[in-house]
């Protein structure tokens, strides 16, 4: 802040900012419990995705293994409209308090300050979670747009702002004496804009299906496009005559979208000459068959059309039609070819996206029409369709909007995080994109719900939406779930944050609790971004608790089979070997134990509790978490 002031820059200041900036460093990780009954998919599918029930700042701190490993954060925080945002005043003194606090009303004079105090440490932690080339896209409306923009400039730096998306959330309605609010915003920042990459949006299967090449066009596949543009234009309001039928077609209440000279050139590519003619229709001069002006009788006009028809029918049967054509049989109104090879598949527009496939490659301050991003109503209808009505969600982001953001800023094998998961739109979008285009993106969703109202909807609404998307189940007319849609496939683990963790907590854990902590916290140096360990639960194994994607086993040594934690010695090593042989696992064998009194080149040893705490960013001796502030 001082540096910016000295340099004449702008710095954000609000009451409690210093405390807010320090909060993320004082939040401690928590024990993470895997809730077996709420997992979805096979063990391997579960290991790729996470749905976490708990306070999002505490959850991000607990997810230490993912620090610096997230490709994209896309999220939709509470908008501070007096309806959803809650603030816990005790956070200033104890940021580990899991309570959401009371609702912040519009009458609260400090509501903007409270919102910024809640958001700042979370933005800091989100930045720390991102890869160097990672991107964050955060949704907001006009209530906190300016405050969020200043915070984003301060946390991520103004030079790392990739763009501001203004998306049309609803159709205009006369609801205001001043301005009708029909848009919301998505602020997009890179952790390092120089490393961030704006990708391209792949065409959907539906979009691709519109392309064909029935006339053997030398430029390849094409689809039907429109020759007209919105609105009227005197200069571009005139009729053009069909060389097949002689019918005069005008643009109606629209206008021809291309210059007159270009239209004439396209018409004459059918082998017929055209002229300008006043046909007395109150529009501009028409483009008619040459000689039409001089044809005075009906018979003369019919002869002219007949000659023309003979030429263009031959041209139609030849194939490789001109850009302007008259339908596949020549009997339709004039339309235009839109070639697949010439359409830019760019991800983001400079101004508006008129069609899925037409998008310039740069982003700044941009607008996305509702036809491209969906409406809030679409988001609610998506949710209604997949879980049924009665969910009481009124502000659901459209699936189309979130899908597009993920396509643009998350690589095909990347990880997407949403710390305000809500109804689970982000996870649904990842699953849909994977199924549609064969990508292998993964998601981490965090949602606390409203436990003050007894509504932990991470395990109800969010969970149900993701499960139904994966299985293809939908509520039937009777209310029962039936497979009514194509399953997207995939799976996820469901985890719940519980108590704070320290060395004493680890050593006092029961076996199942410790297994959960090991499975959820373990990461290998240099490969944090790999899927989670796959848990193995089988009574025939003595110490084996999980494996990784490389078929390497993970073992916890217990005295007497269930506790307390034992030591790795010759006897326990032989039991490790027996478990590995039964499960057909290969070395190295990853062994967790209290002490190591026997060593083997086949073993990677992890001391309990030291290694577990280290994997959570803690130190057994001093327990300082995040000694360095988030980047």
Average pLDDT: 84
Structural class, please?
Answer: alpha/beta
End-to-end distance: 15 Å
Q: What would the principal axes of the Cα set say about the shape?
A: elongated
Strand-residue proportion: 15-25%
| Major sheet characteristics | 10 strands, mixed
Side by side, the strands of the main sheet go: 1-23-2-20-19-3-6-8-7-18
Return Rg in Å. 31 Å
Helix content: 25-40%
The number of helical runs is 18
Point out poorly predicted stretches: 345-363, 622-631
Query: Can you count the beta strands?
Result: 30
Could you characterize the architecture of this molecule?
By secondary structure, the protein is α/β, with parallel strands linked by helices. The chain is built from 18 helices and 30 strands. α5 packs parallel to α6 and α13 packs parallel to α14. The strands form 9 sheets. It has a 10-stranded mixed β-sheet with strand order 1-23-2-20-19-3-6-8-7-18, sandwiched between helices.
């Amino acid at each position: 802040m001082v540096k910016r002031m000295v340099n004449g820059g702008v710095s954000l200041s609000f009451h409690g900012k210093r405390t807010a900036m320090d909060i993320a460093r004082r939040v401690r990780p928590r024990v993470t419990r895997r809730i077996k009954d709420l997992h979805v998919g096979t063990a391997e599918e579960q290991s790729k995705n996470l749905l976490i029930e708990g306070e999002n700042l505490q959850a991000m701190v607990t997810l230490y293994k993912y620090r610096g490993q997230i490709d994209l954060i896309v999220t939709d925080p509470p908008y501070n409209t007096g309806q959803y945002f809650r603030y816990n005043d005790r956070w200033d003194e104890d940021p580990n308090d899991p309570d959401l606090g009371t609702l912040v009303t519009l009458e609260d004079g400090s509501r903007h300050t409270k919102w910024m105090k809640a958001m700042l440490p979370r933005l800091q932690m989100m930045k720390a979670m991102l890869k160097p080339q990672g991107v964050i896209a955060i949704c907001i409306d006009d209530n906190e747009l300016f405050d969020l923009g200043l915070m984003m400039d301060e946390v991520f730096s103004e030079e790392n702002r990739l763009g501001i998306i203004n998306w049309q959330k609803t159709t205009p309605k006369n609801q205001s004496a001043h301005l009708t609010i029909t848009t919301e915003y998505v602020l997009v920042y890179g952790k390092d804009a120089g490393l961030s990459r704006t990708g391209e949006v792949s065409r959907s299967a539906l979009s691709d299906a519109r392309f064909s090449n029935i006339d053997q066009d030398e430029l390849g596949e094409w689809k039907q496009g429109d020759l007209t543009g919105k609105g009227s234009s005197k200069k571009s309001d005139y009729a053009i005559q069909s060389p097949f039928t002689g019918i005069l077609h005008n643009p109606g209440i629209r206008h021809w979208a291309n210059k007159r000279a270009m239209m004439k050139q396209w018409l004459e590519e059918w082998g017929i000459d055209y002229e300008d003619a006043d046909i007395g229709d109150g529009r501009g001069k028409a483009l008619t068959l040459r000689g039409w002006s001089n044809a005075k009788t009906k018979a003369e006009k019919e002869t002219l059309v007949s000659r023309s028809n003979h030429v263009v029918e031959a041209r139609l049967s030849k194939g490789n039609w001109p850009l302007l054509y008259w339908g596949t049989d020549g009997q339709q109104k004039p339309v235009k070819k839109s070639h697949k090879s010439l359409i830019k598949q760019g991800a983001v527009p400079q101004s508006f996206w008129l069609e899925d496939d037409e998008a310039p490659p740069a982003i700044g301050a941009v607008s996305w029409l509702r036809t491209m991003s969906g409406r809030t109503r679409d988001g609610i209808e998506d949710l209604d369709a997949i879980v049924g009505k009665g969910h009481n969600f009124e502000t659901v982001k459209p699936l189309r909007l979130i899908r597009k953001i993920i396509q643009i800023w998350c690589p095909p094998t990347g990880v997407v995080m949403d710390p305000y998961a809500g109804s689970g739109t982000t996870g649904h979008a990842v699953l849909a994109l994977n199924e549609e285009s064969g990508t292998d993106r993964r998601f981490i969703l965090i949602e606390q719900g409203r436990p003050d109202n007894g509504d932990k909807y991470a395990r109800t609404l969010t969970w149900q939406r993701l499960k139904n998307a994966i299985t293809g189940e939908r509520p039937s007319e009777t209310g029962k779930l039936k497979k009514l849609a194509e399953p997207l496939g995939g799976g996820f683990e469901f985890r719940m944050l519980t108590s704070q963790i320290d060395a004493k907590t680890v050593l006092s854990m029961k076996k199942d609790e410790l297994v959960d902590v090991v499975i959820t916290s373990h990461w290998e140096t240099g490969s944090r971004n790999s899927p989670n360990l796959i848990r193995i639960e089988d009574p025939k194994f003595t110490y084996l608790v999980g494996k990784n994607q490389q078929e390497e086993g993970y073992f916890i040594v217990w005295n007497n089979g269930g506790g307390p934690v034992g030591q790795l010695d010759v006897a326990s090593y032989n039991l490790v070997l027996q478990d590995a042989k039964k499960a057909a696992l290969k070395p190295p064998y990853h062994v967790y134990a209290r002490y190591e009194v026997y060593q083997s080149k086949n073993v990677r040893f992890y001391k309990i509790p030291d290694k577990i705490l280290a994997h959570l960013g803690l130190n057994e001796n001093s327990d300082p978490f995040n000694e360095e502030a988030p980047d």
